[in-house]
Every structure is written in C-alpha cells, then in structure tokens.
Amino acid sequence: MASATQNPPINGIIPTPPQWAKKKPLPQTLTIAPVTPSTLPAYRRLITLLLPIRYPDKFYHDSIQTATSCTIALCALWHDTSTPASEPVVVGGIQCRVDPIPAPPSSPGKGQESLYIQTLATLAPYRYLGVGSALLEAAIEAAIAIDYAGGIRDVYAHVWEANEDAVEWYARRAFAVEPEVVVGYYRKLRPRGARVVRRRVGVEDHLRATRKTETEVDGINGSIGKGKAASWEMG
Ligand SMILES: CC(C)(COP(=O)(O)OP(=O)(O)OC[C@H]1O[C@@H](n2cnc3c(N)ncnc32)[C@H](O)[C@@H]1OP(=O)(O)O)[C@@H](O)C(=O)NCCC(=O)NCCS
C-alpha cells in the first residue's frame, strides 16, 4: 500500500529501498568507533563470550588498526547518560579483513578487494536496536573510505551452518546465501560446515560513504587508512 512518505516514482516505478536500508532511529546513547588499546580488552571479552571460535592473539593485535592495516575493527559503545562521567560500555563489535581479488588475465593490474567479515556480534541485552546493522554499515563505509587500490567489490562472511538466525539476518540485509555448504570449514564445531553469505558493494554504499567522509569528525577514526576520518555517531 502506498504511503505519503514513499519515494517519488521514477518513470512510473516506485523505487523500493531494500529491507536492510530501512533504518529505524538508533538510540542516541550508541556510537561506533574503531577499536583502541583502551577498548580492546572489552572487545576481546565480547568476541570470546559470543562466538564459538577461539581467535589467536594475532587476531586481536590486528584489531588495533594502523595506516597500512588491512583490518577494520569497530566496536559499538553504549554511553550511560544517567552517569555522564562513566566510561562507555562495549556492546558490539565487528572485525573485517580486506582480501585482494586477483586481477583477471584480460586486465592485469585491475584487481579489486573483498571485505571479509571475520566476526560480528552484539551483547544479547543490546540486540534488536540496530547495533549489528550499524556495525556492518560502518565497516563497509570505512573500507570504501580507505580507498584500497582497486576498490571494494563485495562483502562476505562464513557463517556456521547451524547458526540459522545469523544466516537469515544476513539474508535480510541483501546478502545472497551461497547454495553449497563449505564442508569441514570449522574444525572444532559440530556440524563443521559453513554457509557463505555475500553482497556486492554498490553505488549506494559508495554514495553513503562519501557523504560520511564529507562530514568528517576529527579523531573518531583518524587511525584508519590514509587518515580519512568519518563519523559513525548514531542518533
Ligand atoms: C547477528 C547479530 C550480530 C545481530 O545483532 P543485532 O545488534 O541484534 O542486529 P540488528 O539490531 O541490527 O538487527 C536485528 C533486528 O533488530 C531490528 N532493529 C531494531 N532497531 C533497528 C535499527 N535502528 N536499525 C536496524 N535494525 C533495527 C531489526 O528489525 C532487525 O531485525 P531484522 O533482521 O528482522 O531486520 C546478533 O544476533 C549476534 O551477536 N548473534 C550472535 C553472534 C553471531 O551469530 N554473529 C554472526 C555470525 S558472524
């Protein structure tokens, strides 16, 4: 049914934004920020608590990004407004790696990159507030803003085949679920298979990232990439 807030028709077709793009307002007490030495211990505890995989120290060493880093690690911070002096609490996190895609033989040197989601998790009491979606969006925007050599072509993740909720969560955010299960992907889990979920990074993502970069706020992610800063303040 049409509503007064729908986008105007283009050539008679009413554009329907994808489901994942229909954002409800996020709580103003939430911000998304790169993982720093001070938030790393809480970020590490959160990942250890919520995901069934044990990551090595190197993984957390990579969480603190440098100018040449191929890792994007962000955390969601909850600010307790009732006690203004209190430290924000880490309530969610995402860590991604930028993987080069080999250039096709037809155009050598034109390789692009994939953004690989290594971890994504929100503490249970803070779920269904948009934290996971905000982390995902912010990681894609950060990867675009860093401006890797060939540009980010797509974003993908392995999801444990038994984690149907997560597979569906990605599917509702326009990720395609690849039909084949990657057999034996998880050595220590039963069942051991993984589903691959993948979404192309398109023009809309680039436009959103550009808009964010234009409204830079110093300091929030000055450590990422080529010094480009973007604000991921919610509200
Ligand atoms: C998967 C997971 C990260 C999702 O986190 P989350 O913070 O609850 O995610 P969101 O709040 O963005 O989305 C959940 C629901 O909240 C709703 N929501 C509420 N406010 C919202 C907002 N402002 N923006 C977007 N969604 C919002 C959405 O409708 C969404 O439901 P939908 O999927 O039907 O659209 C979380 O369930 C989790 O940590 N699971 C355990 C770890 C895991 O499985 N990780 C994934 C494998 S790597």
TrEMBL record:
This is N-acetyltransferase domain-containing protein. Residues 30-214 form the N-acetyltransferase domain. Gene3D superfamilies: 3.40.630.30. GO terms for cellular component: NatA complex. One of its GO terms (molecular function) is acyltransferase activity, transferring groups other than amino-acyl groups. InterPro entries: Acyl_CoA_acyltransferase (IPR016181), GNAT_dom (IPR000182), N-term/lysine_N-AcTrnsfr (IPR051556). It comes from Lepraria neglecta. Keywords: Acyltransferase, Transferase. Coiled coil: none annotated. One of its GO terms (biological process) is mitotic sister chromatid cohesion. It comes from the Eukaryota. The keyword Acyltransferase applies.
